[in-house]
Design goal:
alpha+beta, Cathepsin B, Chain A, nucleus, EC 3.4.19.12, two-stranded antiparallel ribbon, 358 residues, thiol protease
Length: 358
């Protein structure tokens, strides 16, 4: 299905939001900047003739001639009068949404067909296509789906932010998107972003990466890092790391998830798996111990100077006992989770220290 504008245009040209607003409303390239400028000039001339009725030498008339046009400017902005006159060609009329006359009608917004919204010099359309509502804002990377239950709240929020909202009355021209959405309904998994938002995020990430690299270069690894520097260094290390998920790591995560689900769960129940035979909680516990022991041995080999015999290290313990205690020892799920998290944090810390020494 093809919504007009977003599959053909990625950036709004200048400040021609009024043109995009009208074309998004009508779902086609019906108005060009030249045509809207012609309407604006016509309105300016009508206003000049009315002011001239008071006398060509009057102070009000001379002041009017010195003022810029109120219907358009060099940036591409067009007034509500220009938009209203452009829609009259299609037999469409604009009514102020919060006017007393319209509010007395007590019409539910979902029973309307479209709205035009304005804040300062920005215009955009909210239109019903088929049986669903869409925010067709030209500053977004695509149309935003609005549910029927959220429409009234969405319009109320715009009013609180200072937007003027106009109800479009009349029959809109037929369009392909409206015909298709009469038969099907669409679902939107991700809300469209503002144009330039992704670029701004990438820029912020580059700035953060540069700051982190400067922190690492300024640290010779001989002194203790303060807490903020450690956080920055850890973030940079994680951003550079390519994580390869192994089966034993997946088993460890499943065991931790089981612990977080509450102590009321039967520990003898099989844990869901991604591959291999069913594993009981006790088997996962043993595999977790073996995994931590292997990681400790690798860290010991990296930390000890060549030729120096490796000294055995004590494994961290919890309030209920050692993580590597005999499987028959009593150990709560909360203690095992805490021990697993402690070991994981120590692994990250040791890796960071190793990187700092290189």
């Amino acid at each position: 299905m093809d919504f007009y504008m977003w599959t053909r245009r990625t950036l709004q040209e200048g400040s021609l939001c009024a043109q995009h607003c009208l074309n998004n409303l009508l779902q086609g390239e019906y108005f060009s900047p030249v045509e809207l400028s012609s309407i604006a000039h016509q309105l300016d001339e009508e206003e000049r003739m009315r002011m001239a009725e008071g006398g060509l030498t009057s102070e009000d008339y001379r002041t009017f001639l010195q003022q810029p046009s109120g219907n358009m400017d060099d940036s591409g902005f067009f007034s509500i009068q220009v938009i209203s006159n452009a829609l009259k060609v299609w037999g469409l009329e604009l009514i102020l949404f919060n006017s007393p006359e319209y509010q007395r009608l007590r019409v539910d917004p979902i029973n309307e067909k479209s709205f035009i919204c304005n804040y300062k010099e920005h215009w955009f359309t909210v239109r019903k296509l088929g049986k669903q509502w869409f925010n067709l804002n030209s500053l977004l990377t695509g149309p935003e789906l609005i549910s029927d239950t959220y429409l009234a709240l969405f319009l109320a929020q715009l009013q609180q932010e200072g937007y003027s909202i106009f109800v479009v009355k009349g029959d809109l021209p037929e369009c392909e998107a409206d015909q298709l959405l009469q038969m099907i309904r669409v679902q939107q998994m991700h809300r469209p972003k503002l144009i330039g938002e992704e670029l701004a995020q990438l820029k912020e990430q580059r700035v953060l990466k540069t700051d982190l690299e400067q922190v690492l270069e300024g640290n010779d690894g001989t002194g203790a890092l303060d807490e903020d520097e450690e956080d920055l260094q850890r973030a940079l290390a994680l951003s550079r790391q390519e994580i390869d998920i192994e089966d034993e790591e997946a088993d460890l995560r499943r065991a931790i998830q089981l612990s977080m689900q509450g102590s009321s769960r039967n520990i003898s129940q099989d844990v869901p798996q991604t591959s291999g035979p069913n594993l009981t909680f006790e088997e996962l516990r043993r595999r977790r111990e073996a995994y931590f022991e292997k990681r400790q041995q690798q860290q010991q080999q990296q930390a000890d100077p060549p030729g120096q015999a490796s000294q055995p290290r004590e494994r961290p313990t919890t309030s209920s006992g050692a993580l590597g205690s005999d499987p028959g020892d009593s150990m709560s799920e909360e203690d095992m989770l805490q021990a697993a998290v402690t070991m994981s944090l120590e692994t990250v810390t040791n890796n960071l220290k190793t990187e700092a020494k290189k």
